[in-house]
Structure formats: structure tokens, C-alpha cells
Amino acid sequence: MLRSKLLITTITFLGLLNLSQSALAQKLDRINPGEVWPDDRGAHIQAHGGGITKVKDTYYWYGEERRQDLDSNRRYVSCYASKDLTNWKFKGDVVAFTDPENLGPRWILERPKVFFSKKTGKYVMYFHLDNSTYKYARVGIAISDKPDGKFSYLKSFRPLGHESRDIGQFIDDDGAPYLIFEDRPLGFHIVKLTADCLDIEKEVSLIREHMEGGAIVHYKGLYYAIGSALTGWRPNPNRYATARSLEGPWSEFQDLAPKETNTYGSQSTLLLKVAGRRDTTILFLGDIWKPKTQWDSRYLWMPVEIGSGKLWLPQPGPFKINVREGTTIKINN
Ligand code: DGJ
């Protein structure tokens, strides 16, 4: 009697366990801008100020890991993998550095971006490296043999001798890698990286605008550059400019969303081009920062309306993306 009761309890428990695990691993069918975004473990994705690197048909999303139980002496970069841009598998923290340049207790590692060098076969991560007062203003570089392997710290420097805080990445259609960086004295730099991605080859453009969260996309013969104003963690109206060539001349910057929404409470981090069999979608990737509870910061991903020199971020809402087709569908509920 007792044994059969125990057996029933065990079976019920295992059943419940199974149920909760499958609920955790449930496949998502949509992207919900601004909502908690569960990874394959059911935990909110921690990839803030992030970048995306595509390797064959897999997207790797890197970002600032800001979960609550971290060692306060270390700075972490997480890595997630996905084939559909909707369901993300946590691949671990590929960076967990202790203060590599003796910058002091509240040192900063932000906005990681990973480039793949065809020349060396290495993955090269750039990030904003700083001290607590944001005066060090350099890029840091770390390197790995695998997209989701541990990255080893290599060096830090000021690109072409300039102050560098927020960074962005851009890969042109010919595969050439570019870094975008914000330089307080001068403005918004676009520089080409060397083939090994370990250094800057040359300056391509200097836009004399003070813009953070820089990102670029090439779409139907035009380059679109976006960025935010410098308002710390508070959102502001992000803006865009266009040019026929990365060298410019660049148009005036203009709003990419209704000004009063402050980019719907977000700040740009990347423009992702999803070129499929039927169409090409450009996604705006932004962060909705929660400075006091950074682990709960959200993501605003949304397909933009783009073409003929116009770029517009529509009112965010849930959507489905089909990576293979390059299409998205808005969900009206
Ligand atoms: C705005 C930047 O875009 C963020 O990455 C971060 O550096 C905050 N400023 C800090 O205030």
C-alpha cells in the first residue's frame, strides 16, 4: 500500500517536473518588443548593448551579462545562439574578466561586438573599456577560436588616438568590417578594421555629431547610420542620416520615430539585415535600459520601414520573423 502510494507520488512528481521543463523550453513563435524574453532555460536574455554575428546559418548574440548573482569584480559578456532570431540558446558567458587594465573597482565593459576575421579564422570582440568616470575611453579587444568559446583579453587602445566610448559594428556587403565609435571632442567616427580585425586600418568618415549607440546598414544602394543623443541611461529621440558611400557626404540627421516617444523608450545598438529568399528585413535592435535594475533591461527589436532615403521605426508590437524568407508578420493581438 505504502509502496504503491510512493510510486504514484514519484510518478506525479516526475510528470510535473517534465511539464515544467517543457514549459521552460517552449518554442517561441514571436518577438515581443519590451517584454521579458526567455532563453532556452526560461531565463530573461542578458545580452544588453549587444551585437550579432552570423556564422553559416546561426546567429550569435553577444551582450552585457547583467544577471544578479555575478562577481562584482568581474565584467561578463554572454553569448546566445539562434537560427530563427526568436528562440535563443544560452551558450554561456564567453567573457568573465577581472579588471584587465587596473581601472579600479567600478571599471566598465560595455557594448561588446564580435567580428570574424576571414584572414585569421579568429573571432575578435571589441568592447568599450572604461573606468568608473568614463575617462579612460578606450576600446578593448578579446579573441577566440570559436564564436561561443572563451575569449582571451588581448589589449586596449584609443582608435587612431581618439577617445572612444559607445561602439557599434558594421559589416559591409563585401564582408569588410567597420567599427563605429563615439568621440566626445569630435563626433561619430566610422573606421575600417584591418583584415585580422585587431587594429584600425583607416578612418572612413567623421560625422561631426555627438551620437551614441551607433549602427549602420546598407540597403538598396544607400547607407543608413543611426544613433542616439548623449543622455546617459535615459532614452532620447534616436536619429538617422544617409549616404551613397560610407565616406559620405552624409545627410542631416533626422528622427526615426515620433520625437515624443523617445524612440519608444529605447536606445539603438544595431541594425540587422536579414536577407531572405523573398525579401530583406532590416531590424532595429535597441535596449530599454532599467538603470536601477539592469538585469531587467529589455530589448526593443522591430522591423523598420526603410527605403529611398527614409527610415522609420513603427509603433512596437509583437511580430513573427521568417529568417529564411527575410519576411516579418505583425501580430495584432
Ligand atoms: C549611454 C551608453 O549608450 C550606454 O552604453 C552607457 O554607457 C550609458 N550611457 C551610461 O550612462
Explain the overall architecture.
With 333 residues, this protein is mainly beta. The chain has a single domain, classed as 5 Propeller (Tachylectin-2, Chain A). The protein has 2 helices and 23 strands. The protein has helices at residues 2-24, 262-265, and strands spanning 48-55, 58-64, 74-82, 89-98, 108-116, 123-130, 138-144, 152-157, 167-171, 177-183, 187-193, 200-207, 212-219, 222-228, 239-243, 254-255, 267-275, 280-288, 298-303, 305-307, 310-312, 319-322, 327-330. The strands form 7 sheets. A 4-stranded antiparallel sheet has the order 1-2-3-4, with no helix packed on it. It is globular. Bound molecules: (2R,3S,4R,5S)-2-(hydroxymethyl)piperidine-3,4,5-triol (DGJ). (2R,3S,4R,5S)-2-(hydroxymethyl)piperidine-3,4,5-triol (DGJ) is lined by residues 49, 110-111, 166, 212-213, 232-233, 267. Residues 1-25 form the signal peptide. Keywords: Glycosidase, Hydrolase, Signal. InterPro entries: Glyco_hydro_43, Glyco_hydro_beta-prop_sf. It comes from Mucilaginibacter yixingensis. One of its GO terms (molecular function) is hydrolase activity, hydrolyzing O-glycosyl compounds.
